[in-house]
Amino acid sequence: MVVLALAVLLAAFAPFTAPYAPREQWNENAFAPPSRLRFRSEEGFSWRPFVYRQVATIEGGTYARTYAEDSSVRLDVRLFVRGHEYRLFGLFPTNVHLFGVRASDGTSTGRIYLFGADAYGRDLFSRVLYGSQVSLVVGPFVVLLLLPLGVILGGLSGYAGGWVDAALQRVGEGFMMLPSLPIVLVVGAALAAGGAGPGLVFFGVLAALALTGWARIARVVRGQVLAIRERDYVDAARAIGAGGPRILFRHILPQISSYLMVTATLLIPSAMLTEASLSFLGFGLREPLVSWGGLLNAALDVTVIGRYPWFLIPAAFIAVTVCASTFVGEGLRDAFDATAGGSRHRRS
């Protein structure tokens, strides 16, 4: 939970924490390696961290770009510097950033690349922070679309029974037979080919994820509703004249709230991985939107990974966030498990 809270804070304050705009290009710094923070120079130890300006050279035979540090230009890392303008939380205009670099004379003659730069000289650290705003929203958004649909249709199927149950189950089985990843790939490619903007492609992909996943939730909810609707308190509510919708939403569905909470928590990392996979393959989010999976798209070529291994840094953020979300979901499942086996598992 601490890791997830930290990720959410970084996403919320990404414009403030990132030293540069996600689309700000410095072509002369293309493929620049991560800057090396230093505390010691020829003059001795310095409490203020600094970096040296990186100078690119082009090899004559291979035309490969290599970088060397120019120790004559020292760039001090300073807090609360002014840079590009942005709106914090989309409301408050400002140009103050958490950190940046300035030369000793007060001018900015270089840039700091904590995670290196991409092919256009864009700061990968800033793009990772901005990408978290999209990647962390994918999971909750898919859950908000998928879970209510599965709960309502599954609850209606289990409580009504008869031909309503049979019809909804056949429809759900039809959706369950559809392979989710190819369907989402087709939707993303079709929207992009039709001239849809990046935002529309994004929401179309998320809607396709929700439509291909609601049936499994509905199947489990139906089974639990079938068991609960035969209990005494449901019969008592029916005897005093409570209607079907009131019984379903007031007396039955609240009894499975723990299952729904755990399911929602476990669905979030799955949706994040699916979006990252689609964006990595080029069928998900596209520029100007930035996501962790989209940043990994630059690492499709093995030769690129060999020369510029820092392109794999977004994968570490995906792995850590997905693991943290999964662990929280597993912990909630154990916490809501009232059986003896669950108690023994918690003690172990």
Summarize the structure.
With 348 residues, this protein is an alpha+beta fold. It has helices at residues 2-12, 14-17, 124-160, 162-177, 180-193, 198-211, 214-228, 232-239, 244-252, 257-281, 292-296, 302-307, 313-336, 340-347; strands at residues 38-41, 44-58, 65-88, 92-103.
* Poorly predicted sequence stretches spanning 5 or more consecutive residues: 339-346
Quaternary status: single chain
Q: Given the C-alpha coordinates, what overall shape results?
A: elongated
Helix/strand order: HHEEEEHHHHHHHHHHHH
Q: Helical percent range?
A: 55-70%
Strand order across the largest sheet: 1-2-3-4
User: How many strand segments?
Assistant: 4
Whole-Å distance between the termini? 20 Å
Describe the biggest sheet?
A: 4 strands, antiparallel
Write down the overall mean pLDDT: 82
Beta-strand fraction estimate: 15-25%
Tally of helical segments: 14
Secondary-structure-derived class: alpha+beta
Radius of gyration: 26 Å
